[in-house]
Design goal:
This protein is 53% helix and 12% strand. The protein is α/β, with parallel strands linked by helices. It has a six-stranded parallel sheet, sandwiched between helices. The longest helix is centred in the C-terminal third of the chain and has 37 residues. The protein starts with 12 loop residues before the first helix and ends in a 6-residue tail after the last helix.
């Protein structure tokens, strides 16, 4: 495998001009990708699945370079869902072999990873993988632990339901052992028990292939994220697709900020009242104009997510 994963992208004068324009607006700090379409890409291009996955892996390196250009320091990729364990034994063995190869490749290039300051973070129940993959993933995470320029999060053997279930189980164990009281359990504590406790919230969640669903990916972290569903298969995702998504993020951000600013004070008041044992109907009411405003924001946000359908030349 070549060193293309670590090579800088050479931008044209037009691309550099567009980059400067986009950088003049607000940009996300954390972008999460659902890398969908590898198998369909193999069918369309009449190549093997392994070749398609190789191209998909190379695409991650390209995307990291784009994100570095836009000072997006946190990138998360949905690399392997727990649901993928339901695939045929043949396909699982193929995926495990490719995963082992790619992780070992990254370990072999550890000096370049340190040079670029990339921390590789792994989210998910990696004990579900064969021992050799679990050990190399743990080694890669440990080797890059002190890097701080950029964080690449690999979501492997991951689903949001599993993550939240694990977090709730952790809190339940704390209560059972007398380390926590039931009244200590709130949104903030649950957030601290997630796999992603040291990551900022997702600002933009992007799925390729044109499928309009989240596939149980970072549902908690992407609560206030701008959602992008791009009609291109993952190995074909490129610079202009990212530009279009970032521009749409900038269009959505003022509305999302208003939604956050309205929702959070309401949630804080509700939580305080519940902890005090006060009846919700008596003490957690929003004023009528606040209630209408919140509903309007929710409806507008939901409608905009349903309508998003990006097309690019």
């Amino acid at each position: 495998m070549s060193d293309e994963w670590f090579e800088r992208v050479q931008y044209s004068w037009l691309q550099r001009f567009i980059i400067n324009c986009v950088c003049s607006g607000k940009l996300p700090k954390h972008v999460a990708f659902i890398m969908d379409g590898n198998r369909r890409f193999a069918q369309v291009k009449d190549i093997t699945r392994s070749e398609s996955y190789d191209m998909g892996f190379e695409k991650i390196g390209e995307i990291l370079d784009y994100c570095e250009t836009f000072s997006i320091r946190y990138v998360s990729v949905y690399a392997f869902s727990i649901e993928n364990f339901k695939r045929s034994e043949e396909e699982k063995m193929e995926l495990f072999s490719l995963m082992s190869e790619k992780v070992n490749y990254l370990l072999s290039k550890i000096d370049k990873i340190h040079e670029k300051g990339i921390r590789v973070n792994v989210l998910g129940d990696i004990t579900l993988f064969p021992d050799n993959i679990t050990k190399t993933l743990a080694q890669l995470e440990l080797e890059t632990l002190n890097n701080s320029e950029f964080c690449l999060t690999l979501c492997l053997a991951y689903t949001s339901r599993d993550e939240i279930t694990t977090s709730v189980r952790c809190m339940a164990q704390g209560v059972a052992r007398g380390k926590l009281r039931v009244t200590d359990i709130n949104e903030t504590l649950l957030d601290q028990c997630l796999y992603s406790e040291d990551l900022p919230p997702v600002d933009m969640l992007l799925r390729t292939s044109g499928e309009v669903r989240l596939s149980d990916y970072m549902m908690w972290q992407a609560n206030f994220a701008a959602l992008q569903f791009v009609k291109v298969l993952w190995p074909d995702f490129g610079f202009w697709h990212l530009i279009g998504s970032l521009l749409d993020y900038q269009r959505q951000e003022p509305m999302l900020k208003e939604y956050r600013d309205t929702y959070k004070p309401f949630l804080e008041r509700m939580t305080r009242a519940e902890l005090a044992g006060v009846a919700h109907s008596e003490h957690c009411k929003l004023k009528s104009h606040e209630q209408c405003h919140l509903m309007k924001l929710l409806q507008t946000h939901t409608f905009s997510l349903i309508r998003i359908e990006l097309r690019y030349f």
